[in-house]
């Protein structure tokens, strides 16, 4: 969240007139963020979040609206976008696509405890269970096909050892996932790091920032979560967090045999996905705005730990 396109009170007050959300009381730009302009909007009736989309594929925004609407209808804790009096959610404001959301309660957990891990696992399991029936479609923009197309762009910036590591990993992923194993498909969050969740104490207030949302292997989403939520500073998996998330997840959606077989390699693939995407931002495609990129070495460390120590045993699912 950030502000790259400033707005004044009169613009937002006029924008709100199309919605049944009350009249403007205050407008506050949110300074932190990477891609879009974000504002906290307080009306005489409620608190809202207004997002202006600064970059990315704007034609894909209807997919995100449909996905959030679908998950909201299924009582998942997501910010279902507000629709105006004509039933339309996606609008234009200051020349940019704009969406208005309810402001969800809570804060990002920097060091999640086991109760928060169980909450996250339970909610992601429920989300994946219902998302298998979501009718929309957007191919995963960061899957194996993307890795194959993009990894060569960063090789010249790596040491010979890291070049070999990346090339070997991509070749192995082709062998494992290239024949399209029968993994359950559905709608994904695509980037469910801790800073895309909000907690009130141990209660999950919401999942936010679905702009990497897509459809694909549900296991891909789960591996991203474990690599962030259940990993220590040395890159190794933290057993109690790992088990808390996966036990709660599988109580909602047990993993299939094919998913269990693919799990260790999916942890590696998603670690390399973030190592590569961060390298691309640093060396190839810097952000449009003056922002500090994430450190690529974090996910190099995670990948090396997965190679050295492997995956932890998966808890048994509950039927």
UniProtKB/TrEMBL annotation:
Keyword Acetylation in record: no
Q: Which reaction does it catalyse?
A: L-homoserine + ATP = O-phospho-L-homoserine + ADP + H(+)
The reply on keyword ATP-binding is: yes
Query: Which pathway does UniProt place it in?
Result: Amino-acid biosynthesis; L-threonine biosynthesis; L-threonine from L-aspartate: step 4/5
Question: What InterPro entries has UniProt attached to this entry?
Answer: Aminoglycoside_PTrfase, Homoserine_kinase_II, Kinase-like_dom_sf, Pseudomonas-type_ThrB
- Read off the CDD domains from this record: HomoserineK_II (cd05153)
Give GO MF terms, alphabetically.
ATP binding; homoserine kinase activity
EC number in record: 2.7.1.39
Q: Where is the Aminoglycoside phosphotransferase domain?
A: 27-253
Gene3D superfamilies xref list:
3.90.1200.10, Phosphorylase Kinase, domain 1
A Pfam family name for this chain? APH
Question: Could you name the domain of life of the organism this protein comes from?
Answer: Bacteria
Keyword terms, alphabetized: Amino-acid biosynthesis, ATP-binding, Kinase, Nucleotide-binding, Threonine biosynthesis, Transferase
Q: What's one GO BP annotation on this UniProt entry?
A: threonine biosynthetic process
**Alphabetized PANTHER family for the sequence:** AMINOGLYCOSIDE PHOSPHOTRANSFERASE DOMAIN-CONTAINING PROTEIN (PTHR21064:SF6), AMINOGLYCOSIDE PHOSPHOTRANSFERASE DOMAIN-CONTAINING PROTEIN-RELATED (PTHR21064)
User: Per the similarity annotation, which family is this?
Assistant: Belongs to the pseudomonas-type ThrB family.
Name this polypeptide is given: Homoserine kinase
**Protein's organism:** Halomonas cerina
